[in-house]
Amino acid sequence: MRSPQPLHVELLRLLRDEGALSRAELGDRLEVSRRRLLAELERLIAAGYAAEAGAATSRGGRRSTLVELNPDLRFASIDLGVTSIDVEVTNGRLEQVAAYQESADLRSGPKAILHRADELLAKARAEGAYERLTAVGIGVPGPVSFRDGVPVSPPIMPGWDRFPVREYLTREHGCPAVVDNDANIMAVGERHGGAAHSVDDFLFVKIGTGVGCGIYQEGNVYRGTDGCAGDIGHIQVDAQGPVCSCGNVGCLEALFSGAALAREATAAARSHRSPALAERLAASGTVTAKDVAEGASEGDVTCIQLIRDGGRHVGGVLAGLVSFANPSMIVIGGGLAQLGHILLAEIRSVVYHRSLPLATRNLPVVLSELGPRAGVTGAAVLASDLAFEQAS
């Protein structure tokens, strides 16, 4: 059962998700007395979170006044990948006002990367996207102490361990900030406006440079005691497998991720097992997951097999999670989701074959609808939730 939210949080979320509503509609939806609702609205309007928006359509008597989120509310969302940085500014309804995406090397350290995010937000401000930010949300590709707002021993983020990301963003932008791992923010984004919209129990599996899983239970993200729930990339799949970035052997991430697929694809190209990859290696000197996807679409047998092998590894781990958690949906996202339906079909096949029929008879396994925007969307949702909670 979902934990009850304070009235002001429910009210602001309703205006965020539904748009302008009349006082009468708000009273009906929230099931509160008119006196209590009007007092709460008066307080939120005075605090700058809500605003009147003209007269509503008549319901047979005196016309009620529409209420909306303050049009000046602005949220910043930042999605950090190992090789990329995405920054967006949204209004209160989480509609995009400004957006920037560029390549970046997360291994250059937190100060350089966060400073670049600051520069992109300053650019948005100079272009008129906002005057001041209401809150900032950020996702990073590694374990995060959600309570403390810091990454903790992230295997693929050297130099980021215990860096005070939340404190840094709060200080630099003069507003509250929230930090979570990338799989969680993608799950939040997908639930807000993607394939899992309004689904209360689902898994979002992010497959990219790393592998992670956002877990939704009873309408809320489940983060575990210390914030590292869902780190499925470091579940051992093969005791004789390659060494993982975490130092252990045979982890899922070491067998199938962006880096692992590039490694296997390069070996296939150099041995000429894959004509398509050999041609691309000769032309550019490297091969990537995109090359594998293109080779598979051209019918290259080795590329298809590489994708199927990866799907089999992921599916095996997910089958265990399905038996354990009994989700109502699985969403596949992240950079390697571009491998498409060959990957999806293999994951489905393994999950459906290895899980109990009762757990899979109504279990859709689908690709993310938001794609690369899942992360920034989720970070904006978390930023808005934080701001609304602090509007007390």
TrEMBL record:
The keyword Calcium does not apply. This is Sugar kinase. Belongs to the ROK (NagC/XylR) family. Keywords: Kinase, Transferase. The keyword Transferase applies. Pfam families: ROK. Signal peptide: none annotated. It comes from the Bacteria.
